[in-house]
Amino acid sequence: MDKIPILKIGHFLMVAIQVDLYDRLALSLESDLVQAVSKTGAKGVLIDISSVSIVDSFMGRILGNIAGMSKVLDAETVIVGMQPAVAITLVELGLPLKGVQTALNVEKGMELLQKKIQFTEEEEIDDDSTLQ
Amino acid sequence: MKLDTAKLLQKRKKQILELWMKNQLVDFSLREDLMSNEELTVQSEELVNILLQSLNNGNLEDVQSASFEPLYEVLETISRSRAKMGYSPRETGTFVFSLKDALLNVLQQEFKNDPVLLLEESLKVSKLIDSLGIVTFETFIKGREEVILRQTDEIAEISTPVIRVWDGIVALPIIGTLDSSRTQVVMENLLQEIVATSSSIAILDISGVPAVDSLVAQHLIKTVSATRLMGAECIISGIRPEIAQTVVHLGIDLSGIVTKATLASALRYAFSLLQLEVRKLNLKTNQL
Amino acid sequence: MIVLSSDSMPIMKELDMVVFRNRLKEFAVKIGMSLVNQTKLITAASELSRNMLRYAGGGNVLIEIVNAQRQNGLRLTFSDTGPGIPDIDKAMKDGFSTGKSLGLGLPGAKRLVSDFDIKSTVGKGTTITIIKWKNG
């Protein structure tokens, strides 16, 4: 069976979906990613879907699941590079993927993750100082 | 006898054309401003020629006969060009129906001693011209439709210009009613431009939209959602007081959307998101 | 409406869906459908074929290029011999699902196409016909 490679870059995990997803592949990506977040303690997950031409409700649900599960494991998820036609279709379908962060491309997605993580780190430092 | 009528008309071609031209020139629907009388004569002659030719080898009783195809084709060309030139349907109709008068006139002269035959042949000619009239109208309307379709395309194209306002900011002023097919074009153009310029902020200015009802609001919300899915923020600007009133009266929920009264304030907000600021140069420092 | 050409294929397993989506893409490109409309149609088709697999254990889909009023379009007919849908009105509502899905399949698919028709008999099966016009 095909597998979608998960790359670790610094504090982040990155996945580039290059093939048309069928349901079982999407489900295995979901479990692999959550496993990887837990194992590496990653702070952010970046999913590049710029080569994906179809996102239906199932695939949309998987993306939402990944974001939700990662959040529980204290990692932010950003979906990057959605094609215009896919975005229009998702809205029409009635699936605006609320609660999922998006960015135009990998670079902007990385920036966004970096900002989020800095923010939470600062918060933690603040918390520490008040404790002292 | 049938062949006689055809042959006879063929023989009297010159007279038919003369009569027809006379009919046309005295009619109040004559449009010398659109076509000179010489041109009109050429066009009329062409039509009479092809009509009589078709009659020669065709059957006057069968208006659907394939031998009339060339005649219909010429008529379609004339009708279409007249629609484009701005002739009214009545004027184009009169053009064809005045030919009937000319033909019947000739028949009357030929068969004045045989009323039964005259009636018979007149009915046939009349039926043929009626059929030509129908073709004329069909083509005339088709010609008009083509004009309308072309204009619709043009309007759709020119009415959705995406403007690059600043590095990372695009704006799209919407002018006119926002229906679902228009929304489709707006969304596509906006999203494509966002990708092309990798802009993270889009401003949708609706000061040119006459009214916002719940359907239009739905379209705006869809556009904003699609922009966000791509990873960009979408600001709606140009909300006039009347629009604010209707939005509240209709109970439309725009709370998830950033709205600004003017394009200027939307731009100011966009600058703040991008951590940019516009300042006035201090001229006094220059004097030092 | 005139049918210009057609193709039929079974959808009995998940991988058939991938093959079907590719085949559909070829048809859509052939009639010159815009990218957005292609995406909408294929997404709707994906929802419907998944429903067929999940609730009826598979079925058949007919792809046709049709022409009406001077424009071309694609007509898809999904037919299965599954359990059928007892309450179609309910099934067409957003958020209704007998499975664990989001319940967007049927109503979502309807929003994505130009024409949507559903016929179902309990115990006999379901037939769904959708049409997407080239510029619709």
TrEMBL record, chain A:
It comes from the Bacteria. InterPro entries: Bact_StressResp_Reg (IPR051932), STAS_dom (IPR002645), STAS_dom_sf (IPR036513). SUPFAM superfamilies: SpoIIaa-like (SSF52091). Gene3D superfamilies: STAS domain. Residues 1-113 form the STAS domain. PROSITE patterns: STAS. PANTHER family: RSBT ANTAGONIST PROTEIN RSBS, RSBT ANTAGONIST PROTEIN RSBS-RELATED. This is RsbT antagonist protein RsbS.
Automatic annotation (TrEMBL), chain B:
Coiled coil: none annotated. Keywords: Phosphoprotein. InterPro entries: Bact_StressResp_Reg, RsbRD_N_dom, STAS_dom, STAS_dom_sf. Pfam families: RsbRD_N, STAS. It comes from the Bacteria. CDD domains: STAS_RsbR_RsbS_like (cd07041). Signal peptide: none annotated. Residues 159-270 form the STAS domain. This is RsbT co-antagonist protein RsbR. It comes from Chitinophaga ginsengisoli.
Automatic annotation (TrEMBL), chain C:
One of its GO terms (molecular function) is kinase activity. Keywords: Kinase, Transferase. InterPro entries: HATPase_C_sf, HATPase_dom. Residues 36-136 form the Histidine kinase/HSP90-like ATPase domain. This is Serine/threonine-protein kinase RsbT. It comes from Chitinophaga ginsengisoli.
